[in-house]
Specification:
Pyruvate:ferred/Flavod_OxRd, oxidoreductase, Pyruvate-ferredoxin Oxidoreductase, domain 3, Pyrv_Fd/Flavodoxin_OxRdtase_N, magnesium ion binding, alpha/beta, Transketo_C/PFOR_II, 7-stranded mixed sheet, 20% strand, globular, 651 residues
């Protein structure tokens, strides 16, 4: 869903909501608008329920309407790894958190202002995160004695006083939904499945969200089952009307569009995996090359395979391989044939692909290895986030096999990071790691659709003929004769007359590419491959140090950008001085990183691992960088990092 921002505009006044997306929402001076309307600058909502309750769909629809309204937003889907965990149990709880605001925000929020709990398990699993005074909407129909005992409630939390510190709204969501759908030929069980749409309608009323997009979505989603579509729309409207008429919800809330937070342009809500997919398609177009994806499905990377399979019209070919090794083997073969080869996976798949990555290093062909990191080791936490594959990407191959590493910082930045990874791969003839993670992959934010003239030219020149003259004057093609600037070897397409050459994993002779076991040649080729990676041109690292007086630098990479930046803002608002820098290029590091580190008395590196970037920085620059780590499967909270950084400033 896209929205157009032409120029900054003042938000609506206190008595009406802006005309958004061609529709006007109910306002206090219209029929049904007698209830109090309060203006807020931001809200954090968490939908939580059983895996079968449709919480991800509910959150996604609320997010889409919020994006079309013009708010800045950030999301955190959180769901179990099991396809269907036992109903009503704590392991089966699925949640979706959305933070939206009338100003620039960076994280899904530390704690929800509103919790929608569809059953006792959802309440118990999430109540510890809910601050006192927050609103809790509970589906009372699910608070049966058996359901409560299943999660360890001896007495009903709705009656024993344990929720007295919260603003609790008991709503029989299932009963109300079934009643609203009594005109449809549905069983009580089938009708009850629409209770998530009832809840979505209620929350849409509470926060003045647009509705047309959701109704259109439901009609499209259930186009082959129009009765089901209309039933869901009826439940959605019933939820809206319930909020409008019930006395339990005396207040609704406005969060004005964040028009001053965005530069002019066309925006859409986008997830990290979708942005990365679009970036790969764009890279193929910018390089004027076919895009070939060889992949094996794995959480949380599978969405990229699904998305790219839709874009054959852009010269994209996708191959779902029988295993991880076959996936990268096919992608590497496509690169040899002149395509932009890509393989997507997560940490366990990288381990399986390691030998083929080493082969790509030896062949010196462009290849993108997209690693959507997740919690490990082994199967670990398949649906949770982590940043623990950095050292695997850096060193996880036999022999000296250096590979560049690029990491996006936000969901929308996955688009630009994919193009940057492709630039390096094509220009320097090398495999490149693109390290995203589950938090970025599944989270979403508003993204400005770039103009085509803003994007780089990635076109390459294939070898066309001989490139070397022998002593006797014979002109020949040497497959490992290098560009003196980039040290890249020529890219010769199979079938081009006169460019026949050997291929394989055994060490090559410099220049000729012939098989070589010569010790001196192996030493030279190893050092040359390393020098090629070390010499990759990457932008200097930028430092955010508004006052120029900070003595503490917080250095991050990847998805920690949002929490780190939010924490830095909190400290600066409190009068503290803190500098921030965030790495996109992790191999090679930006040339000015060492000089930046020397400027500051203290360096703190927050990571969702046990200190992998800190290990690399300490080893290369011999600085006493302090590592602050977390491996819970969840992103950092801004308040948590602000506390740590304040302690570092004062220490």
């Amino acid at each position: 869903m896209t929205s157009q921002v032409s120029s900054p505009a003042e938000p609506a006044d206190g008595t009406a909501v802006e005309h958004v997306g061609g529709q006007r929402l109910p306002t206090p001076d219209q029929p049904g608008g007698e209830k109090e309307v309060r203006r807020l600058d931001r809200v954090i909502i968490r939908f939580a329920g059983d895996s079968g309750d449709g919480m991800q769909l509910t959150g996604d629809r609320f997010t889409s309407e919020t994006a079309s309204f013009g708010n800045d937003l950030s999301t955190l889907p959180n769901f179990p790894a099991e396809i269907r965990a036992p109903a009503g149990t704590l392991p089966g709880v699925s949640s979706f958190q959305l933070h939206f605001a009338d100003h620039d925000i960076l994280t899904p929020g530390d704690a929800p202002n509103v919790l929608v709990a569809m059953n006792p398990a959802a309440l118990k699993a999430n109540i510890a995160d809910v601050p006192r005074g927050a609103e809790i909407i509970v589906n009372t129909d699910e608070f049966t004695k058996r359901a409560m005992q299943k999660v360890g409630y001896d007495t009903s939390p709705l009656e024993d006083g344990s929720l007295d510190g919260f603003s609790v709204h008991p709503v029989p969501l299932t009963t109300l939904t079934v009643e609203a759908l009594k005109e449809y030929d549905l069983s009580r069980k089938d009708a009850g499945r629409s209770k998530n749409m009832f809840a979505l309608g209620l929350l849409s009323w509470m926060y003045h969200r647009p509705t047309e997009g959701t109704e259109k979505f439901l009609r499209t989603k259930f186009a082959k089952k129009p009765d089901i579509a209309e039933a869901n729309i009826t439940a959605f409207r019933a939820g809206w009307n319930f909020g409008e008429t019930t006395e339990d919800f005396a207040v609704s809330y406005e969060v004005a569009p964040a028009t001053k937070a965005f530069p002019a342009g066309t925006y859409r809500n986008i997830s990290g995996n979708l942005a990365l997919s679009y970036g790969l398609v764009a890279a193929g177009q910018l390089a004027d090359l076919p895009l070939y994806l060889g992949s094996y499905p794995i959480t949380p990377a599978s969405d990229i395979l699904h998305e790219l399979s839709k874009h054959k019209n852009f010269g994209v070919r996708t191959f779902q391989a029988e295993d991880e090794i076959a996936g990268i083997g096919a992608a590497l073969g496509a690169a040899f044939g002149g395509s932009l080869g890509v393989t997507t996976t997560s940490g366990p798949g990288v381990a399986l692909k390691s030998e083929a990555i080493g082969l790509a290093v030896s062949l010196e062909l462009p290849l993108l290895i997209v690693d959507i990191q997740r919690g490990g080791p082994s199967t670990g936490l398949p649906t949770k986030t982590e940043q623990a594959d950095l050292l695997q990407a850096m060193y996880g191959r036999n022999g000296e096999a250096p590979v560049p590493i690029v990491a996006p910082r936000t969901p929308g930045d996955c688009f630009d990071a994919a193009i940057e990874a492709a630039r390096i791969a094509l220009e320097y003839r090398t495999p490149v790691f693109l390290l995203s993670d589950g938090y970025l992959a599944n989270g979403s934010e508003p993204w400005r659709v770039p103009e085509t003239e803003e994007l780089p030219d990635l076109r390459v020149q294939f070898a066309q003929g001989p490139n070397h003259t022998l002593d006797d004057g014979t002109e020949v093609f040497w497959p490992y004769k290098r560009d003196p600037r980039t040290l890249a070897r020529p890219w010769a397409i199979p079938g081009t007359p006169g460019l026949e050459h050997r291929i394989g994993g055994i060490e090559k002779q410099d220049g000729t590419g012939n098989i070589s076991y010569d010790p001196a040649n192996h030493d030279f080729m190893t050092r040359t491959r390393q020098a090629k990676i070390d010499g990759i041109a990457v932008p200097d690292l930028e430092v955010d140090d508004p006052s120029g007086e900070a003595r503490l630098l917080v250095l991050g990479w990847g998805s920690t950008y949002g929490p780190i930046t939010a924490a830095a803002r909190r400290l600066r608002a409190a009068g503290e001085q803190v500098a921030q820098a965030h790495l996109r290029h992790l191999n090679p590091f930006p040339a000015n990183l060492g000089e930046i580190l020397e400027r500051y008395d203290k360096v703190v590196i927050p990571e969702m691992n046990l200190g992998q970037l800190a290990t690399l920085v300490r080893a290369k620059y011999l600085v006493d960088a302090r590592s602050y780590t977390q491996v819970t499967g969840l992103p950092f909270k801004a308040e948590q990092l602000a506390t740590v950084l304040k302690e570092a400033i004062d220490g």
